[in-house]
# Entry
Amino acid sequence: MPIFHCSYFSTTLQTETKLVVTLPGPFLFSEDDVSLENQFNPKRTYPVVYLLHGATDNEEGWLRYTSVERYAREHGVALVLPYVENSFYVDMHCGPRYWRFISHELPLFIRATFPAITTKREETYVAGLSMGGYGALLLALRQPERFCAAASLSGALDPYQLFKEGIIPNLDHKTIYGNLDNVPGSDMDLLALLQKNIDEDRPLPRLFQACGTEDFLYSMNRNFLESATKMGVPITYEESPGMHSWDFWDRMIVRALDWFDIPQLDWNEAL
# Structure
């Protein structure tokens, strides 16, 4: 499975940024005889999962601590893993414009640099853990025209509560949001975004949510699920024993990829 560690100058961020991209390939020692012409057919495009990291992590965390590269290969899907610091995937009050980067520049860069990765909504997915779970739903709800499905694993789904109650005291919310009171009801509030999409009758992506029952964000995830359900938003929800840990996320990313129901590639198909 090809894997690319990329570093390039971001116009939006005004600095070098890093990301990892993986592309699927046919299984080694497959019973099917896949020709080189089919394997490297320039007309082939791959479904893609934008896979987002959590706070204090980086673009390599998913690959270092889980087997997601193998899972992606089994599902025939490309992965795009960007780096956004501890930004919560927003344009920071005192820092880089990570929302602009993740929502606008990154897909343009991927389209230009990796033309084999699809731009079709029906084959584009987003998932993330913790801060990245929030980021995944933020992308899906702000840009429902781009994503057919989104998955949040142990998501930090209410940043206002997260910082107001000091749940993660080592991060400076003023750097991210300025005044924390700006978050509720804004386009950084996931429940407000859900309601806005409902009011505007916009087609929502399918939503998947998972959290461990021993996770310190468990009650936050349950509250989000209950609020979304009251709005009439269908969410596939799974919970099981587990903490805020890579062991749980390794198990749940498999569940999310299965649930996405990604179209399977036929390596012998004539394109």
